[in-house]
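Reply to dn_fold:

You asked what the input looked like. This is it:
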Amino acid sequence: MINAKFIRKGGVFFNAEEGREEMIGLQNCQQNSYENIPVESLSLFQESGCIIKEINYSDTKPLILDVHYAHRMPSIQKSFGMFKDGELVGVCTYGIPPSHTLLKGVCGEEFKKDVIELNRLVLKYNRKNEASQLVGQTLKRLGNKIVVSYADGAQDHLGIVYQATNFTYTGQTKPIKEIYLKSRPHLHHTTFRGKTYKQMEEEHGDDVGYRLRSIKHRYVHFVGDKRFKKLARKALRYKVLPYPKNVKSI
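and this is what came back:
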């Protein structure tokens, strides 16, 4: 059942309230023109002058590296762009999660090959409803998949866009102590997988430190044919919880 605060339009759920999605829009991002994208490239959606298409890995870099708070490229299998008047104004990417534990942890061994992560959602201007349009339309192009995504509590994100697109909320990640490099704090923790603190110190000296990984809200969504969604949803190993509403509860 659809939450009363959301309305449905063209297969996408929109937030009927004033709250915006939590992606950060940066006005001074480098301007880029994408008029030369081939006509035969996949066009998914067109409304109010916006078009959503599948794009190349290299096309995602300006927004992911310059606008998204993590400032690093994730592992990408599928990437989509939102265009307005030929300008790339939004990016949504999907890839295999870096955590092998997560692959099996969501729905078990049987479904680990079907797990994919929505690992970047970036909007240049963050206009109203852009995030929910971009997510809602690209989910339709993934086939049979279990989509996992996170809203970072350290950024005061609740995951409003995932709530608006009908994801299932499965709680928060646990705080974990991790090794990091002080000079390169944006490097993902899996970069140092398998290395001890002592080994890192030998390689990087005083640049090595410990920090607590930020707590994130975890969302799961099932896409594809009815049979797959029914079986995968039944196999979900996380407890389904009410949507979080208060950032201070993080």
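Residues 177-212 form one domain.
Hope that clears it up.
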